Each structure stands twice: as C-alpha cells, then as structure tokens.
Amino acid sequence: MSRLHLNPQRCAALLLALTSAFNAPLIAQSYFLNGTAQEAGTDCYQLTTTQGNQNGAVWSADFIDLSQPFDLNLTMNFGDLDIGGADGMVFVLQDVGTSALGQTGGGLGFNGFDPSFGIEFDTWQNGQYGDLVQDHIGFISDGSVDHAPPSGLGGPVTANIDGANIEDGEDHPVRITWDPNAQIIAVYFDCEMRLFNEIDLIGDVFSGQELVYWGFTGSTGGSYNNQSVCLSPTILATGPETMVCPGGSVELNVVGAPGTDYAWEPSTFLSDSVGANVWCTPDTSITYFVTYDGFCENDIQDSIVVEVAELVASAEASPGLTLNCLIPSIGLYGGSNFSDGIDYQWISANGGNIPSNLGPNA
Ligand SMILES: [Ca+2]
Ligand SMILES: [Ca+2]
Predict the structure, then answer these.
(1) For residue 97, what pLDDT is reported?
(2) Domains annotated on the chain, with CATH
C-alpha cells in the first residue's frame, strides 16, 4: 500500500509539516562542484585550467522538470588558446547524481553518463567521433560524444554561425530552450539559433523520468584551456504563467545580462520591485510586467501571470489496487490542476517497493 504525499510549496494552507519551508530566506540556485571544477567569482564556475587531463563538472542542486518548458540563458568562456586549445564543454541532463564525473580528453567529461542528453561545445577535432575541424555544437546522448546515430542526435554544426574561433577569451552568450509539447530542444550561440531537433527527452532518453539532474562538464587532454560557465542564481526563470494557492507565496525569477537593472510593474503583492528574484504573495490573480536587458537584446519586457487557485490533487492506480501473481506491479499516477510548482513524493506505508518515488508517477 502506498500513498501520495504532495509537497505543494505554493499552498501554505495545505502545508502542515513543512511550514518552515515558507519561512526560509530566498534560496539561490546552488551547485555541486566535482573534479577540477572550482568557483571563479560571481556566479561563475571554472571547469578546467591550462593543464592537461582535467575533468570538471558543475551540477545544479535542483532537478529540472522536463514536463515543463525551460529557457536557460548563460555565458560560456572557452579560454584563449585557439591552436592547441581543448577540449570543450557540455550542457548535460543526467540521472546519475550530483557527484557524477565523466572522462577526460575527447570525452568532454560526458563519457560514461547513461542515460543522459548533452549539448556539446567542442573545441578540438576528434576524427573518430565525427567532429568538425571548426569549434562546433552537437546533440549527443547516453554518455557517448560520437556524432553518429544512434547516440548522436543532431549536428555537428559550427558553434559561431560564421564558423569563427570561439577560444578567444570572451564570454559567449548561450541560450538553451526546451518545449515539452512540441518536444523541441534548441541551442543558440553568440545570439544566433544554431541547432534544434525534435527529441522525446522524457520517453526516449530517460525512459519516462521527468525530473533529471542538469549542469555542465568540461575536460582537457594533451591540450587544454581555461574553460568556465556563468550561471545566474535565477537561471531557472519563471514561465509566462504560474499558479499559487490562496494565502501562498510564489517565487518569480527572470534572468538578464550581468549587472542589468530590473523593474516590476505593478509592485502590488511583491517583496521587491527591482530584483531578478521576487516573492509574490497575492490576494487575487495578477499580471506583472518586468523589464531588463538580456544577454543579446536590450529592453526586454516579459509578462508573468500569477493565478490564484485552490490546489486540487488526485491519485490513481492502474490497472487497479490489487497485486497478485498475474499483476506483480501497478502504476501509480498523481496529478493536480497546477501546471507546475508541485513536488510529488510516493511513500510506502508498509515497506513495499517503489522503484521511483519522486515525480507524479511511480
Ligand atoms: Ca572533440
Ligand atoms: Ca578554436
């Protein structure tokens, strides 16, 4: 016998044992650093230095939910050694954990994670993997950096649209978007769309798992570079619509260029009207407009609709509640009227085995 335990962070009235979560201060995005990765100033993480055979990884402490869209904006710096610079970095979705560490050299710190999905930013041509001679981008999976199918899922294409060298010591803007309805993953580099593909990340890559770890890996081999990524504390930006229970609070995040100013209108129900991260405690549904400068364009204005609604949760078992020799396992399905912001946890009341206890389905 199992029961569904909801952790509705936006529903204070329903949150009994977890009340302290509401009193916590703003929780910035936090990261686990592995291998040669180290902090490198404000929101930046250096994955490798100018030494050979390094391997660094930075993993978010928070899962990313692939059933929801995301739009990640960040910068990457590939060092300033072009001739003889190597090897590159990878944006990674994986379910290995926050201590995952791959392989050095041409493996880009990605080799070995299975299942996984990666967007590689590769600065060293490895002929055996089908690499371009130019610095390039490709979609890869299941711990293989080979561009050929079945693990290769798109590209390679040149990273810069003109094929220019990216090991120039500059911070390059990178944008990664995911649309779970169309199942389109896309990557922009230097403010240009470079590669997109229709990929069933949840079904084909992660066998139905919606919550996965995310972060970046980087490596060096016989050649090397200073390689780093900068990830804003608000990088998991709020979508255009979000929901909150009456009396609850919801965190609203936007991410703009480093040092930009933010302005929220109206300021009604907000903890702050000039931050990238504000808390909203609304009496009624409300629409906000927030203006800021982005990585690639100035004077962005986003709108965020905050809808106040009662949480209605449900739990179902399929094919039924009875286990026997013919039906050795059952599926458990949780749901709610909230499109996001709800954490699900399945708890066995008598020690029964639940292979995957997080997420709406078990
Ligand atoms: Ca390579
Ligand atoms: Ca280069």
Answers:
(1) 93
(2) 31-230 (2.60.120.200), 235-308 (2.60.40.10)
